[in-house]
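Before surveying the methods themselves, let us examine one representative protein, pairing a chain with its fold in token form.
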Amino acid sequence: MSDILIARNLTTGYGRRKSSRFAPEGMRKKKGPAPVLTDVSFSLQKGTVTAITGPNGSGKSTLLKALCGFLPVWQGEIALFDDSGNCKPITAFTAKERARKIAYVSQQHQIPDIEVGRLVLQGRFPYTTIFSAYTESDYNAARAAMEKMGMYHLAGRKMRELSGGQQQKAYLAMALAQQSDVLILDEPLTFLDIRQQLELMETLKALASEGKTICLVIHDLNTALTQTDSVLLLNEGRIVSQGPGKKLAEHGCIEQVFGVTLHARSLGESGGQSYTFSLETQ
């Protein structure tokens, strides 16, 4: 497998940091907001599903925004492979070029008073201008995305008439309509019932098998450890561990970071594992 999106020694946060202009060269200290992420290095590989997990406030959502180029890079680098296979800093791409490579679905949405189909069509913005009308290709891409998410029968319904889970799936369809190589999702399982969660994870794995690269924040540790190719564990803005879920479960880092006891259960002939968690006993 080949890398498609890379973070190297990334330090970032919100706002800009400035050096003191009066300190001697080489001794200038950065002033301003404290970093949210410090010295983070990892890569997303083409055709895989990567889960980012960690306690609240560990920097998960911040990392997703940084990978999309939404935040300034204070130190280090975020690099993305272009269509020719060249690795370039993400700042070298225009906003539309990035959107053709990376689709992002945020954690919170302001629900617009429009039809589902019209929302999904907005995912075609990297290929249009304010002066151009949607083409047949745009409508076909939107329809395929809604069908992939099982939403096409709701194309004519208003977004505000849908349940929270249906709204979430509509936003995911909009991201799919971008036809980007990388799909970055901030807590996409929120508002979904257990069947919808399982169906979504199967959809994401199918997309990965077709060549898309998926990166998502997951709070459900069992899902993160068992339903993805790789898990990135964050705590206090730093990477604690990364690798296959089974490796992290055996390493003990999950228990250390969350202060819980992990219980593994074999799923028999399938060779898989399932995990439950309990509070530590003193």
Observations:
- The first helix runs from residue 60 to 67.
- DSSP finds nine helices and 14 strands in the chain.
